[in-house]
Amino acid sequence: MTVQRRRPVRNLSPRSWIIILSVVAAALVAVFMTIELRGNIGYVLPRRAIKVGSMILVAYAVGVSTVLFQTVTANRILTPSIMGFDALYVLIQTVLVFTLGGGFVLAMSEPLRYGMEVALMVGFSFLLYRWLFTGGGKSLHLMLLVGIVLGTMFRGMSSLLQRLIEPSEFIILQDLFFASFNNVDGALLGYSLIAVVLVSIPAWRMRHQLDVMSLGRETSINLGVNHKRSVTLVLVICSVLVAVSTALVGPVTFFGLLVASLAYQLCSHFKHSAVVPMAVLIGIIALVGGQLVLERIFSFNTALSIVIEFVGGIVFLILLLKGSLK
């Protein structure tokens, strides 16, 4: 007699999980905003609000873009960051410091630098992803190979330029390589919010179409989906979301894979109307809760992204070895 294993995490409905995750996320945000609140409240609260707002926006952008990207690529391994996006960000920062100087980069207008970084990353990612994922079916091995080759090439170019710059400028450059929520500009957060809202509208409208696309390219075409047009639109949305997130706080390579994998594990069905909100809420809990633990319990000044990348990398290897990612 065969005993089937039950999955307790899937006994709850997606709606119940969304409610639970929403309550936990709201509680963490409230604690983060009010814990040890003293001194000049008019100064402290706005700074905390900007930090929390940036974490929520990054969780939303990374969660949505990862789930949508995995839908159009038809596998759970690829994410925009794994495909060389973070290496491109490092290259852009390195080229700016190498050509203009660290002092000039720091003195450069934040909106100007932010807009330039977003434009470059959106243009690169859209051209790369559209070439890979539109038209006929592409091999997973080809996708991974292209991502690895481009990432290696970008890192090699960055390493060469880093060896040629002054040590003092290299220290400035190092601070730009890790995601940080401590020095987010409020104006840039507003610009990012506008961009995220604009691309979220078409993403939400095509949620049912995405459910059909998750069945595969041939099946979705047979069911009347304009696959090439839909994939192109999704890639534009993903490009903008990841570029905005990376330019705002820095790269977070495995964070999207972590929250998307957990969302799929908790969800009893794979409808985007449930998976996407769950991925976003898990991301908010991870970022806000992690930052709260680091700052208030362990009193660490290290970037939260270092811890998240470590945990996300372990989860990636575990899922890959178990064969859970297809």
Automatic annotation (TrEMBL):
Q: Where does the UniProt entry say this protein principally localizes?
A: membrane
Q: Which domain of life does this protein belong to?
A: Bacteria
Where does it live in the cell? Cell membrane
Membrane topology, as annotated, equals: Multi-pass membrane protein
What GO molecular-function term can you cite, just one? transmembrane transporter activity
Membrane spanning segments where? 16-37, 49-68, 88-107, 114-133, 139-156, 176-204, 233-262, 274-294, 300-321
Q: What is the protein's name according to its record?
A: Iron chelate uptake ABC transporter family permease subunit
Q: Give any Gene Ontology cellular component.
A: plasma membrane
Q: Which family does it belong to?
A: Belongs to the binding-protein-dependent transport system permease family. FecCD subfamily.
